[in-house]
Design a protein that fits this description.
Helix content: 25-40%
Oligomer: single chain
Number of helices: 5
Radius of gyration: 17 Å
Number of domains: 2
Length: 150
């Protein structure tokens, strides 16, 4: 793996995006080579982790994917079970999806203020279950800031 990419990933819990790879001057070919050499693991489209930073437990993998989701969706806010886990609150079962909320843009609002086309799902990697990838990043667009009345 390219030294510049490795140093960047080390600062981000072992995570990096393809956009960041290009910013530090590396290439897709270097990413493909690192994947083939098992130096990195693809978590979802555009998101990778250094193989030596891949966690062993489901909760740790969920939190790592959440950190990566925030790299892909910088204006996102963790929500649902993902927010509980990020705050150290235990849950009975770790869900297969990482949940984020992000502000809705005017382009996503219909004529009556309803939402359209507001969910983006990225397949991810929390581990294999029966040969199937078992994780998603779900990005819900919506108003999630509650105004405080004075």
């Amino acid at each position: 793996m390219d030294l510049a990419v490795r140093q960047l990933a080390e600062k981000q819990h072992g995570l990096f995006t393809t956009g960041q790879v290009h910013l530090v001057g590396s290439s897709r070919k270097a990413v493909r080579h690192a994947l083939a050499a098992h130096e990195i693991i693809r978590l979802t489209r555009g998101l990778y982790v250094l193989a030596d930073h891949y966690p062993s437990t489901t909760v740790e993998r969920h939190l790592q994917l959440a950190r990566g989701a925030l790299l892909l969706v910088p204006d996102g806010v963790l929500s649902h079970w993902t927010a509980l886990l990020a705050h150290g609150i235990p849950v009975v079962t770790v869900p297969p999806e990482v949940r984020l909320r992000r502000p809705v843009s005017s382009e996503c609002l219909g004529p009556r203020g309803g939402r359209r086309g507001v969910r983006r799902v990225l397949t991810g990697h929390l581990g294999r279950s029966g040969g199937q990838w078992g994780a998603w990043i779900v990005v819900d667009l919506g108003h999630f800031f509650v105004p405080v009345s004075q």
